[in-house]
Design goal:
D-Amino Acid Oxidase, Chain A, domain 2, 12 helices, alpha+beta, globular, single chain, Arc Repressor Mutant, subunit A, FAD/NAD(P)-binding domain
């Protein structure tokens, strides 16, 4: 029997698993997908929010502020890309400026550091591409950008190295109460556990209702984005927001940790929790809205569009609690923005709840750390030559756009939480993220995956189960 079973391997499940892996506990993480971070975590704005937006007194406000303060050290420890670039909320009229002053006051109540209201000349000095009709902005120096899936993967690598069991492709179908805890049923396996932590994202209400009375609903909210080529990456230096509305923080423009530009999202309530399609009309709206902030983005240099799903709860706040009628079952639900920022702090709260629930925490000795991933293009000439001498695979360029080597790809495939699909490799080592979007390197990545997994090329997946790329040879 497991001490703790975590449902969901997104940023919250990963944060909690890593935190708990420090203690002498028998832990398993289940996820219905064939890779970690394959839901909301892989499709969001990748922003570490400062924390001025959340209403004072809410869990969102509390854990946003605490999570933000943890990010720099956490990402350094895990060797994950992070940059504290700051953010601006732009104002274009008196109504906007009234809202900006409200956000500033809210930020003070939330104890957010390093905020300032800028005038037009101050804005144009640090962000010259902002539209000329801007009149003011809220500047928050503590905001940042991160690699969200890189962070979740790194956390789970740390957890697995330190004894946590990760089982993918395990969709939870039923939960039953037993004398000593719970029985969790998947299609081909059952798990006995003393405690359950529900981090199932947009499915968290469905999982909750398997064992407890209905206490909240999740309404899926889709957002669509543009990823711009690195030629557009320096259009802004900070995350640029417009004044938020009831539907969210609006269309933003932000640099990414890898030098691209991200534009979006829109905000659309839909019924299908798995509908990640993009639509021409909504993407057109994203373009039109973004022009209000920055007028000279060249959308002809868009290299990809995508959509992500947010878990909007009917409570309007994070849900981090033990179910009233299911002792030992903990919900971590409704984790919409700023959930990515708050995740490390949420993990601490879950630890507190477990202690309150009687879990004895004994620290392990000699905790292990994941090995650093060598990024070839960031090395000096001397370091590159030395690495190639040790492993000639680092001398073979697979992705020309991003200068990704075969050695890097082999490294992330062979890790404890390694990539097993083309997109899984892409999220870990970045082949296919450049201008050609895998047009040249994709077949080579498929060949490497087939060889490493000892499977045929036809069985290599693009991403999720069923996403086969090849069906057979056209020529002998």
């Amino acid at each position: 029997m497991y001490d703790i079973l975590i449902i969901g391997a997104g940023i919250c499940g990963a944060s909690i698993a890593r935190n708990l892996s420090k203690y002498q506990l028998n832990i398993v993480v289940l996820d219905k997908e064939n890779d970690v971070a394959n839901g909301t975590t892989k499709a969001n704005s990748a922003i570490v929010h400062a924390g001025y937006d959340a209403k004072p007194g809410t869990l969102m406000a509390k854990y946003n502020a605490l999570g933000n303060s943890m990010y720099e050290e956490l990402c350094k420890e895990l060797d994950v890309p992070f940059k504290k670039c700051g953010s601006l909320v732009l104002g274009f009229n008196d109504e906007d400026m009234k809202h900006i002053h409200e956000l500033y006051e809210r930020g003070l109540m939330n104890k957010i550091p390093d905020m300032k209201i800028l005038n037009k000349s101050e804005i144009k000095k640090i962000e010259p591409n902002v539209q000329e009709n801007v009149i003011g902005a809220l500047y928050a120096k503590s905001a940042g950008i991160v690699g969200p899936w890189e962070l979740a993967i790194a956390m789970l690598e740390d957890a697995v190295i330190n004894g946590v069991k990760l089982e993918l492709g395990k969709e939870v179908l039923k939960i039953e109460k037993i004398n000593s805890g719970y029985k969790v049923v998947t299609e081909n396996k059952e798990y006995l556990t003393k405690k359950i932590i529900n981090c199932a994202g947009v499915y968290s209400d469905i999982v909750h209702n398997m064992i407890a009375k209905k206490s909240f609903e999740i309404h899926p909210r889709r957002g669509q984005y543009y990823v711009m080529d690195k030629t557009q990456g320096e259009k802004v230096n900070r995350t640029i927001f417009q004044c938020p509305t009831i539907m969210g923080k609006g269309v933003l423009i932000t640099p990414t940790v890898h030098g691209n530009l991200l534009v979006g999202p829109d905000s659309e309530d839909i019924k299908d929790r798995d509908d990640l399609s993009t639509t021409a009309d909504r993407l057109h709206m994203v373009r039109e809205q973004s022009i209000k902030s920055i007028g000279n983005i060249e959308f002809k240099d868009s290299i990809r569009t995508f959509s992500g799903m947010r878990a909007e709860s009917d409570r309007g706040d994070f849900i981090i609690e033990e179910a009233l009628d299911a002792k030992g079952f903990y919900d971590v639900a409704g984790i919409k923005s700023p959930g990515l920022t708050a995740a490390p702090a949420i993990a601490i709260r879950v630890l507190e709840l477990l202690i309150e629930g009687g879990v004895e925490l004994i620290l392990k000795e000699n905790l292990k750390k994941r090995k650093k991933h060598k990024i070839f293009m960031n090395l000096s000439s001397e370091e590159k030559n030395e690495l190639i001498k040790k492993d000639p695979c680092y001398g073979k360029i697979v992705c020309r756009c991003e200068m990704i080597t075969e050695g890097e790809i082999l490294d992330i495939i062979r890790r404890e939480v390694g990539g097993t699909t083309v997109d899984g490799v892409k999220r870990r080592a970045r082949p296919g993220t450049g201008r050609c979007q895998g047009g040249f390197c994709g077949p080579r990545v498929q060949e490497i995956l087939a060889k490493e997994q000892k499977i045929s090329l036809e069985k290599v997946l693009m991403d999720k189960e069923g996403s086969y790329i090849l069906v057979g040879k056209t020529k002998k």
